Amino acid sequence: MQAQVTNPPQQKMSSKLILPFVNSTMNVFTTMAKITPVIATPHLKEDSHATYDVSGIIGFSGDIIGSVVVSFQLATASYLVNALMGMPVDTKSSDFNDAIGEIANMIAGNAKKDLGLVASIGIPTVVIGSGHTIGRLSGVPCVVIPCHTSAGDFAVEVNIKPNK
pTM, whole model, 2 decimals? Predict the structure, then answer.
């Protein structure tokens, strides 16, 4: 399923950089978790606070630099991890952290191949806790792709730019 995205707010980041993340998110969740997310209108993020309590973070280097953050409500993250693993996983376990990192890795990896540029992705970092902040590239917009599912809400936050 291919989604369409018009240029994000204020047209500061090309939709060519956002659309691969929208399509990847749809693909990862429908294929791996058997849940179809509803993608809401992307918008600019004004602060560095994570949208939700659980964040998987992947850095980009090469022709694209920056990061993508997949941020979940704790209950949503728990439901999705349990669905992916096929069994209950304690939210305080390393397996939970690994699964969140893998979700972020799958979204970033799938999007990377559609960006049309040479890029590498880093090892995922997972942060859990309400109100945590995430460092971002300064002077580069962070576009939030809000997602709604029957399991709850999550967001994909894209803060990348071409590396000239």
Answer: 0.88
